[in-house]
Design goal:
By secondary structure, this protein is mainly alpha-helical. The chain is built from 17 helices and 4 strands. Strand 2 and strand 3 form a beta hairpin. Its main location: membrane.
């Protein structure tokens, strides 16, 4: 299938209307989507085969639940690093490297499994290595979405990506379970599944190798260092209330609903007395429901707001956890799991969309890395807790406790609204005034103090302070480490806004990071200024003590 030519911009496709399948008309996105679907199919086959292999190696509910932890924990540790590297380095090369890492990890696991040299801890170790690659890959993989489709198609694109993953989830577990069940030896069947998963990464690598990438945001300044990039990403999240709301809701939801995923194999084996194929069908039921939701989400979004979708999905999953705990009849649990998959995808797709639309281009991968870290952190910590409770009491008590926790925290989580109001305009602002050219020995010299003096009519003081404090978040998100506004004690019409940057180059980066929405906030402040000419701006560098001169 041909890739999009390098001179064809994905941001200006020929008349694509926002619809559920509109992004698939863009050749580059379509190639990526197909390759990703094949790779996800291999991943879900491996998830089933690996978890079932663990049940054949040990009867410990904790070790079985740790398979979910091994899959989730790398993102908890590496999410910020992955986002920082994806915002600094070329995303195409990063993706090729980490796809190769995952291919190699699974290939070695397949070889060890065929040879019979596999133990519970070795299986956990290679699952962990595989998911190190996944953790480092995912922020860059999701951050390239705005490079492939127009911004107005991002919600449909997120839904199609969810449909890709959940199509694989619907089919992959059953195929993986069938392959394991087809062999008398669980090791042999699992080994073939691992080998097929290794091969599935090749298609993604081929698409990436042939992609002629044109980044949407490319700084004219030197690249940030890793540590500085992580700090600026954390600073953005700290001063972005919409981002904080998305992260908080993702953590609460995944922490409690993780019990469904981490204990499903235990319920299948010990309560329902099913084998590998039965477990694959149960896991596939979640995937079928998720696929249905992913294809119907565009219609659902037109009828219900994001917060209603999440609240209804949460209440339904409370019921699912209770059914898994107290009802041990497969023909009842299967349809319940189908709808649970729909609720899961509706929630996670909505939260993912809120992060994609809520972050400007310069910090997209770091925002997504933080989101994935929060999401998988909830999964990892929840899986450990619910597995521990199941091992030391019973699966029934563990699932009931997670249902109770999900229900009790719903009113608190629902207070943090997401995707309210118009979609933010994160188009980079084009400065009309050139940056000042200070006399500096080193652009990393600092700290830098920027001082802006406004003349404000006394009858507009309240209006000004409201507007200037809205600008505070912009300054801090874009790189300021301190901010304040002060009123002159002798001339109360003079107000002085002051913010501190770590260095001159950080100040220049903050100018690059200003978006159209940020500029509108700044314009509201400047519109109240009543002095002759624009507000007086000065740039000052910290005066370090001179070294003593030896006589």
């Amino acid at each position: 299938m041909p890739l999009e030519s390098p001179d064809t911009s994905p941001l200006t496709p020929p008349s694509i209307q926002p619809s559920g399948f509109g992004p698939l008309r863009i050749p580059l996105f379509r190639d990526r989507w197909i390759a990703s679907t094949v790779s996800s199919l291999g991943t879900w086959m491996q998830d089933t085969a690996g978890t079932w292999l663990m049940t054949s190696l040990t009867a410990s509910p904790l070790l079985i639940a740790l398979m979910q932890t091994a899959a989730s924990l790398p993102v908890l540790f590496l999410g910020l690093l992955a986002g920082a590297t994806a915002d600094i380095f070329d995303r195409r090369r990063l993706l090729i490297f980490w796809q190769g890492w995952m291919l190699g990890s699974v290939a070695i696991l397949a070889l060890l499994t065929f040879l019979g040299h596999i133990s519970p801890w070795a299986l956990l170790a290679f699952t962990f290595l595989l998911n190190i690659g996944s953790a480092m890959n995912n922020p860059a993989w999701q951050a390239i979405v705005p490079e492939l489709v127009p911004r107005e198609l991002i919600p449909d694109t997120v839904s199609l990506n969810a449909a890709s993953n959940n199509l694989a989830r619907a089919v992959g577990p059953a195929i993986g379970g069938l392959m394991v069940a087809a062999f008398k030896n669980t090791d042999t069947g699992s080994g073939f599944v691992f080998l097929l998963n290794a091969l599935s990464f090749a298609g993604v690598i081929w698409v990436l190798v042939n992609w002629k990438r044109t980044p949407l945001f490319k700084s004219a300044l030197p690249s940030e260092r890793i540590a500085g990039s992580i700090r600026s990403g954390l600073r953005y999240v700290r001063y972005s209330p919409p981002m904080q709301a998305s992260l908080l809701r993702a953590f609460i939801y995944t922490f409690f609903v993780s019990a469904v995923w981490s204990l499903l194999a235990v319920v299948a084996a010990q309560d329902l007395k099913q084998g590998a194929l039965g477990y694959g069908i149960l896991n596939g039921s979640l995937g079928i429901g998720a696929l249905i939701a992913a294809t119907q989400l565009p219609k659902i979004r037109r009828r219900f707001d994001a917060n209603t979708i999440i609240a209804v999905s949460t209440l339904y999953n409370v019921c699912v956890l209770l059914v898994m705990a107290w009802v041990h009849t497969p023909w009842i649990i299967i349809p319940v799991l189908v709808l649970s998959g729909s609720a899961w995808t509706s929630t996670m797709s909505t939260l993912n969309t809120s992060v994609q639309l809520g972050a400007p281009g310069w910090v997209t991968a770091r925002a997504l890395g933080t989101y994935l870290m929060t999401f998988q952190g909830g999964m990892a910590l929840g899986s450990v807790l619910w597995g521990f409770v199941a091992e030391h009491s019973s699966t029934r008590i563990s699932l009931t406790a997670s249902a109770a926790g999900l229900l009790v925290t719903l009113p608190f989580a629902h207070r943090f609204k997401i995707l309210q109001g118009p979609t933010p305009d994160h188009t980079p602002y084009q400065w009309k005034r050139p940056a000042p050219e200070p006399v500096l020995n080193d652009p990393d010299e600092g700290p830098i103090r920027v001082s802006i003096v406004y003349t404000v009519p006394l009858d507009r003081y309240d209006e000004f302070t409201h507007a200037i404090h809205a600008l505070r978040g912009v300054r801090l998100r874009d790189g300021a480490i301190r901010w304040g506004v002060f009123r002159d004690a002798l001339r109360p019409e003079l107000l002085n806004e002051t913010f501190i940057m770590e260095s001159w180059i950080d100040y220049l980066r903050s100018r690059e990071r200003m978006t159209a929405d940020d500029q509108r906030i700044r314009d509201r402040v400047w519109a109240i200024h009543a002095g002759d000419g624009p507000p007086v701006t000065s740039h000052q560098i910290y005066a370090k003590e001179a070294h003593a001169v030896k006589e």
